[in-house]
Write a structure and sequence with these properties.
The protein has 292 residues and is α/β, with parallel strands linked by helices. It is built from 8 helices and 16 strands. It has 2 domains: 149 residues, Quinone Oxidoreductase, Chain A, domain 1; 107 residues, 3-Layer(aba) Sandwich (Rossmann fold). Strands 3, 5, 6, 7, 8, 15 and 16 form a 7-stranded mixed beta sheet that branches. It has a 6-stranded parallel beta sheet with strand order 11-10-9-12-13-14, with helices on both faces. Helix 3 crosses helix 7. The protein is globular, with a radius of gyration of 19 Å. The two termini are 25 Å apart.
Length: 292
């Protein structure tokens, strides 16, 4: 039976375990993919804790993970068996598994030169960064402040902004300043007062020191309302993923993968992300695919 890694009850990591799974059956508009790599995101442990139960109801046990790369096994919806693809999973879960279902309309083919490892972190984290910049409508010469610039979304947002001629400042822990500066970001510690900017991308829910401007934030709804901010969310345009895959394949964008765990250590990968302040993106490599 295919193997997956998930949880049996809402709560802490003690409910995480490997699960024997039936082979997924794709429905209309879905692709069955042999997973080669799965991105690990903070939302994964939040799903396990039940924080997203209101809008992401799951039947337990459930498999964690919502972004993957792999090879199409069951052809359909314009894709052929053997196609190298990346995309979000159906239903926002199921990625930490040997096989997963992907919605064909949100999947991108992987161009030559793009590794499965890098591709697996583009659908959610990098896609969110791209969508954020589109929503903020910044012009060349304007300024952007990224709160939490050292994470997976922040580093991609910073690179995309610099490409557009936007002046970028960001807050991050001191260990991440050198990398951010190499990307063209003016880096600040979290406890420093950040500069004013034309727009703010808040990735840590820290709006207390933010004054004015266009604001996108991951903060709670009541905090957003108090600061006149809008929620940060992924729009899901499949064209965005195609753009991102080309940028990475051509060496113009660093997706920031810094930690690759074997499937047997999926729990350790999630624990690293849950502990917070991890530098770069974390992925889980599946034994079914080539490790490149």
């Amino acid at each position: 039976m295919p193997l997956g890694y998930g949880f049996t009850s809402y709560g802490g990591p003690e409910f995480q375990r490997f699960l024997d799974l039936p082979m997924p059956e794709p429905g209309p508009g879905e692709l069955l993919v042999e997973v080669h790599s799965a991105g690990v995101n903070p939302v994964d442990w939040k799903v396990r804790e039940g924080k997203h139960r209101a809008f992401l109801p799951l039947t337990l046990p459930a498999v964690l993970g919502r972004e993957v790369s792999g090879t199409v096994i069951r052809a359909g919806a314009g894709f052929a068996a053997g196609d190298r693809v990346c995309g979000p999973t159906v239903g926002g879960c199921g990625g930490y598994a040997e096989f997963a279902l992907l919605p064909a309309e949100r999947v991108a083919r992987m161009p030559t030169g793009l590794s499965f490892t890098d591709a697996s972190v583009l659908p959610i984290a990098a896609g969110t960064a791209y969508d954020a910049l589109e929503t903020l409508h910044l012009e060349p010469g304007e300024s952007l402040l990224i709160l939490g610039a050292g994470g997976g979304v922040g580093t991609v947002a910073a690179q995309l902004a610099v490409m557009r001629g936007i002046e970028v400042a960001g807050t991050a822990s001191a260990t991440k300043h050198h990398y951010l500066q190499a990307l063209g970001v003016v880096a600040y510690d979290h406890d420093q007062e950040p500069p004013r900017a034309d727009a703010v991308l808040d990735l840590v829910g820290a709006l207390d020191n933010v004054d004015g401007g266009r604001i996108l934030s991951v903060a709670d709804p009541e905090v957003l309302a108090h600061h006149g901010a809008r929620p940060l969310k992924r729009n899901g345009d499949p064209g965005v993923l195609a753009v991102l895959t080309e940028l990475v394949a051509n060496g113009k964008l660093d997706p920031g993968v810094r930690h690759v765990y074997p499937f047997a250590e999926a729990g350790d990968a999630l624990a690293l992300v849950e502990a917070g302040h991890v530098a770069g993106k974390v992925v889980v490599g599946l034994p079914t695919g080539p490790r490149h």
